[in-house]
Structure to design on (125 residues):
């Protein structure tokens, strides 16, 4: 757990911490990060990264095949009607994007994964 005193000190000095590509990045005015403060940041690096990253709960990353499906929808390559087990959708791309958004929001993730696999099957057909 990150010390509240460390967070207050960083804020008071104008230090902004971000996580980019799993790395902790400090943006600060010149001279704001002293050697002692830098040592504290290094000592609490893992806790700082954990505190700064948004929690995604227990959602697993999507399989590459579904990532490709979503990218095709984003690129407007799925704008056609498609038959799915639940019925005909008028625009497969819009359906895929809506389903992916619900998955990302944590709304019935297992159901959304199944729907994306079904959409992938319609795309591959």
């Amino acid at each position: 757990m990150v010390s509240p005193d460390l967070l207050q000190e960083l804020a008071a000095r104008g230090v902004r911490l971000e996580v980019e590509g799993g790395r902790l990045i400090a943006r600060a005015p010149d001279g704001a990060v002293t050697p002692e403060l830098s040592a504290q940041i290094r000592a609490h690096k893992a806790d700082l990264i954990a505190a700064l990253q948004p929690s995604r709960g227990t959602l697993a990353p999507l399989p590459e095949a579904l990532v490709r499906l979503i990218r095709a929808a984003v690129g407007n390559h799925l704008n056609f009607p498609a038959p799915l087990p639940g019925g005909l959708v008028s625009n497969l791309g819009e359906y895929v994007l809506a389903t992916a958004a619900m998955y990302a929001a944590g709304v019935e993730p297992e159901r959304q994964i199944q729907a994306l696999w079904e959409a992938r099957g319609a795309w591959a057909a």
